[in-house]
Amino acid sequence: MWLFFTLATTLLWGLAELFYKKGAREEEKYAHLKIAVCVGFVMGLHAAFELLTSDLVYDPVNLIRYLPVSLCYIISMAMSFFGMRFIEESISDPLENTSGAMCSLLAVVFLGEVIEVPSVIAILVILVGILGVGYLEGHGSTDRSKKLGKRMALIAFMMPFCYAVLDALGSFLDIIFLEMETSPLVGVTEDNIEMMANTSYEITFFIVAVILLIYMKIRHVPFELPTQRDKILASVCETAGQFTYVYAMSGNGAIAAPIISSVCVVSLVLSHIFLKERLSKAQYFFIFLVLLGILTLSVIEGDA
Q: Where are the domains of the chain?
């Protein structure tokens, strides 16, 4: 069954990226905030369902204790939603998935972990791919500044990197928070620590969604649910993917992790088919290097 949940997670998160992109319309000024609201409310519903149907005894103090991790993930996602308004999903998703490599580097620097030579090579391949994509963003037919202006083009292109940095920081903090010996969470056991952390994250996202909704109401930003179909579908796929992810990793995590990391490939294919995104040959080459590095690193780390 773990393989079924692994493939389901990969497909669900790939679909989530597709619907995120469809919902992040460039001309819709507050599209990124609306997506965050939809995600927050769906996650809030899922957290409520888990609390009502499981035997988890949840201590609200964990909301505060897990807040640094939750905010890293929530802010990174909001930045990703903003960047999607201007950057092709074929470009943004592979760049965002470099967060795994960044997390590995953080573990080396701050936790004293050792990276083997193959992992170093994979990270260097990712770096070459990123530098190539970055160079093409400001030159030739892919010069986005001609359309958006230099300032907005730079901000838009930096969003996937901001996501990757914050997501990597969140993942790095999770290494500490999800270890029984170092976790500051209370009332946790080996069996419920991941669920306790995820519930804290989902409730925090729900609270942030309520705050954003109030903010948009004050600014008189229209938010009619019937017009938010793509945003809601993305939120459902995202949350459903989180649900299946737990079961995928609990079965055979060493194999499941590299398969799930291929979600950026799924996203690339779906964007090509349904969004009709077309990149230059040079862009595809450097994106391929990024994907190759990510998948290689995932396989190496999964076998470690």
A: 2-303
